[in-house]
């Protein structure tokens, strides 16, 4: 019966394993068969060992039974002898002992058999547990392998998606680039066509209007504007060329835009163009074109938004903050020019214009290198006609002219600093520093400056920082004048009266306490 039960259990386990094997892969089935074969071999060996142990026990029990029989025979012989001697009691005791020994031997055998059966059952249970653990491990390994394959498949799918997206993005980029290239080619073709039309129209215009004129006049036409509310004798409006000092407003026929032009000699125009290239900065108006024709040349600038002379001619006075802004921009321009060791030499309100939201310097017609002598003894103060807003007078220039040493006068950055002080005085006092050249010569003569602390009176200036800057710019000695970078540093403080009022109030309180 036990063997039949074991065979049934083995059949059930084999059926369970076959059911599991139907789900698992071929490789797992092979390992499963190997493990089952190993388990069957272990069971066979264990059963053979159990059978051998039972045979040894039976032999031992037969040996014990034979010894008991021999003992019983010997005791029967003794009993016979004892019977013969009349020892019935001893014979009864011997029988009792034999019976007890037989029971004890049988109990020992039963115990041994029970232990052997228990050991056999425990071995089978352990084998079942081992097989179950192996099945669990196989299931876990199969699950892990399936999860690993699933992760690999997901990674491969993600990589394929990324590649597909990258290909799509690159294809879209290629399409956009090709579209841009086509648009650019079309735009260039349209521009070339438009330029061709402009060129033909410009050529037709030159043929019509440029008969008997030079190249310059064929390209640039001076603007003729109508004077406001001014009529001639016959009641007709007079047409005049609009002029801004030495600059004239003209119309470029090539670009159809307004420009500023100035006529000069070819040497002066070439020198100014080279200096403008050297001093290229956002604080200086750049040149647009240079044209030479015979002994006359022109230099072309973009038209400014506003000229400082227009503001100075108006009746409305400029406030202190606006004057500080003009001074700051001009000081920065001078700082850039002086950093290249170049002097402007004709800084005045006429050379300051507003363009692109800031005040800039227009033109470098009188610019010289620092220490360079003026050619032919022509100094900035000898410009004719002399005007307060367009001419600049410096103590060095007047002293050289008074001594007859115009040929030895050298350009210096200190002249620009004196002109900057004169411009600041014009903005703050709203009147020129000198109304004429004779007044300038009279006030800056050694006889008038004898015994005075300041070269120029600045009592009309009420701003404390403005007065401080003027006192350090309008100095007779060039070495005593403030540098352009210091003016740019202090210019932003002009007009801040509250700070100086607090400082002056504190000083007055200290003086009262001391008194």
UniProtKB/TrEMBL annotation:
It comes from Hanusia phi. This is Protein kinase domain-containing protein. SMART domains: IQ, S_TKc. It holds the Pfam family IQ. Keywords: ATP-binding, Kinase, Nucleotide-binding, Transferase. Residues 1-22 have a biased composition (Acidic residues). One of its GO terms (molecular function) is protein serine/threonine kinase activity. InterPro entries: IQ_motif_EF-hand-BS, Kinase-like_dom_sf, Prot_kinase_dom. It comes from the Eukaryota. Residues 70-90 have a biased composition (Basic and acidic residues). Residues 1-32, 57-90 are annotated as: Disordered. Residues 187-500 form the Protein kinase domain. PROSITE patterns: IQ, PROTEIN_KINASE_DOM.
